[in-house]
Design brief:
The chain is built from twelve helices and four strands. With 267 residues, it is α+β, with helices and mostly antiparallel strands. About 5% of the residues have low confidence.
């Protein structure tokens, strides 16, 4: 299956954040024909059939890069994720969980937009089993627990279901942080008349940059820059509620504003 230059570039960026088993699993995921087909078809359903924004491989890779960037900042600040604090694995295993969950989080869009997080869990389960059996074949207990947290990340990415683990919380926020202009561009080009939901596309188009950097007070700072104030809709209706629903909230600073003006501090 042919990949776009953007998709290839994002895969390289994701791989730079990984070593060891997480890097090996990334290689496996990036070459898996079933995953690639699901990601591509999710985009067809989202953009061509429903007129929504990008929910395909580029979005899933961007969300993954966002989540892994935050994970690195937490670890650099001395914060361990649930797999390590609960004595199940280490932060490398947490990278595996975040990687798999975020790369699969929107595959339920191939079936339905409504409750696609539940569809995604059903579609992802045999894939997750296949991956973990290949790479964690000697440790049944760890396979079971990693699978549970991966499914939690997929189920929780819409903030409709309560999640508890930091790993799943990173998937939730990583997804919410993908709101730059490029994600809305395709659906805006396809829309020839105004339709319900256009505020999401136009507000997303106002977002010029989302930075995930070390914070001053907390380990992670998310800074959202926008060209027009309509972008605040994206913050207050999409990203901010996801952060509030995430167990990672206590480690996040959030600022947003129009370029050249004073930034608004949310967290």
């Amino acid at each position: 299956m042919k990949k776009s230059p953007k998709q290839n570039s994002l895969e390289r960026q994701v791989k730079k954040k990984l070593t060891g088993i997480s890097s090996e699993i990334a290689e496996y995921l990036f070459m898996d024909e079933e995953i690639l087909a699901l990601q591509d078809y999710a985009n067809i359903v989202s953009i061509k059939r429903l007129g929504f924004n990008d929910h395909g491989p580029v979005h899933m890779l961007k969300a993954t890069l966002n989540a892994l960037t935050m994970l690195d900042l937490l670890v650099a600040a001395g914060i361990d994720l649930n797999l390590k604090t609960e004595g199940i694995g280490d932060n490398e295993d947490s990278r595996v969980v975040v990687l798999i969950a975020t790369l699969l989080h929107d595959i339920g869009m191939t079936v339905s937009r409504e409750k696609h997080e539940f569809m995604g869990v059903n579609l992802a389960l045999p894939i997750i089993n296949r991956i973990l059996e290949n790479f964690y074949f000697t440790n049944m207990t760890k396979r079971v627990i990693l699978r549970s947290i991966i499914l939690e990340g997929i189920l929780g990415h819409m903030a409709t279901q309560k999640i508890q683990s930091l790993e799943a919380g990173l998937v939730l926020i990583g997804d919410g942080c993908d709101m730059e202009q490029g994600r809305a561009r395709i659906s805006l080009k396809l829309a020839d008349i105004a339709r319900r939901g256009d505020i999401h596309r136009y507000s997303s188009s106002a977002i010029t940059k989302v930075k995930i950097i070390p914070g001053v007070i907390r380990p992670v700072k998310i800074e959202v820059q926008m060209a027009e104030s309509v972008g605040f809709f994206q913050i207050e209706e999409v990203l901010y509620p996801k952060i509030l629903s995430s167990p990672v909230k206590k480690y996040i600073e959030l600022t947003a504003g129009v370029t050249g003006r004073e930034m608004k501090q949310y967290l």
